Structure formats: structure tokens, C-alpha cells
Amino acid sequence: MAKLVEHRRLRLPCDIEQWLQQGLTYPGIQLVDLTPRIVVESTQLPAPFHRDPADQLIVATARVHGAPVATADEKILGYPHVQAVRMGG
């Protein structure tokens, strides 16, 4: 998220740090560590998946934790190997 804001591909109603802190207060939202298992999973996703390393890490994290991805990204929404929920966008 921070990189999207940095590169002006995403606009938030407040600064990124405040937005993250606010987001973490929602029930069921949890910040998880980037682990070696997630890093390896991101390099071994079942085909077809695109080459964006950030999306690969997001999808791998969801798969490792058995969690859905909340996204407006059509590439992730269309990927059959992860549960995805359409959000905004």
C-alpha cells in the first residue's frame, strides 16, 4: 500500500501510517510477518499468475494463512488458486 501511495497510484484520505493504524483496529484484521515460507510460496504459485512481486507476496501470504484477499485487482480476483473478495475500485 505504501508503495502505491509513494508512486501516486493510490490516494488515501490520510497519511499511510495513520491509514495502516486505523485499518488494524478493524475486527479480524491482523498484520502478519513476512516469513521464509511466504517468500518461497510466492515463487512457486500455481500457474498462471503474473510477474508482479508485490502481488505474488500478497497472494502467497493469503494462501499460507488460509485467508481471503480483499482487492479490486482484477488479476488477483481472476486467479483461481486464492480466495479473493472484491473491494472498492
Fold and architecture overview:
The chain is mainly alpha-helical and 89 residues long. 43% of the residues lie in helices and 7% in strands. The protein has a two-stranded parallel sheet with strand order 1-2. The protein is globular, with a radius of gyration of 13 Å. The two termini are 14 Å apart.
Helices and strands in order, then pairings?
Blueprint: H1 2-6, H2 16-23, H3 36-43, H4 53-65, E1 69-71, H5 74-77, E2 84-86
Parallel strand pairs: 1-2
Quick check: average pLDDT?
93
How far do the termini sit from each other?
A: 14 Å
- β-strand number: 2
Question: Strand-and-helix sequence, N→C?
Answer: HHHHEHE
Give the fraction of residues assigned to helices: 40-55%
The radius of gyration is: 13 Å
Low-confidence stretches: none
- The strand order across the widest sheet is 1-2
What does this entry show, briefly?
This protein has 89 residues and is mainly α.
Comma- or semicolon-separated keywords:
single chain, 89 residues, mainly alpha, two-stranded parallel ribbon, 5 helices, 2 strands, 7% strand, globular
